[in-house]
Amino acid sequence: MAKWTPRHEAPEPLEGPVVATVTGLTILWFVLFLVQLPFYGWFDDHGHTWWLWTCLAGGGLGLIGIWYVRKRDAAIKRAAAQDLTATPPAEQGVSD
């Protein structure tokens, strides 16, 4: 079996409001669950109860995701602060 090699360099990961995005989508999953809950009988009659449980599972996994991205964001900020204190900036404009 031949080894696969990429043809181009991988792009940089996108950074943005990750915590807000995961939180918003988690809320959306729970809202979808709550909106569908009054129609449980219809879903049950037609064999679509998995729709409700998918939304509930998405909300539950979203809670884990919120915990994860908040910890990740805090670790990134800690590492950035540590890098700033560990390496002093180079002296500028110093000539002998």
Largest sheet descriptor: none
The percent of residues in helical segments reads 55-70%
Helical segment count: 3
Radius of gyration: 23 Å
Structural class assignment: mainly alpha
Low-confidence stretches: none
Query: Roughly how many Å apart are the termini?
Result: 62 Å
- Kindly estimate the percentage of residues that lie in beta strands according to DSSP: under 5%
Return the average pLDDT rounded to an integer. 89
Helix-strand pattern, N to C? HHH
- Categorize the overall geometry: flat
Number of strands: 0
Summarize the structure.
The protein contains 3 helices and no strands. It is an all-alpha fold and 96 residues long.
Can you put this structure into words, describing what you see?
By secondary structure, this protein is mostly helical. It is built from 3 helices and no strands. The protein has helices at 18-36, 40-45, 49-86. α1 packs antiparallel against α3 (49-86). The radius of gyration is 23 Å and the shape is flat. The termini are far apart.
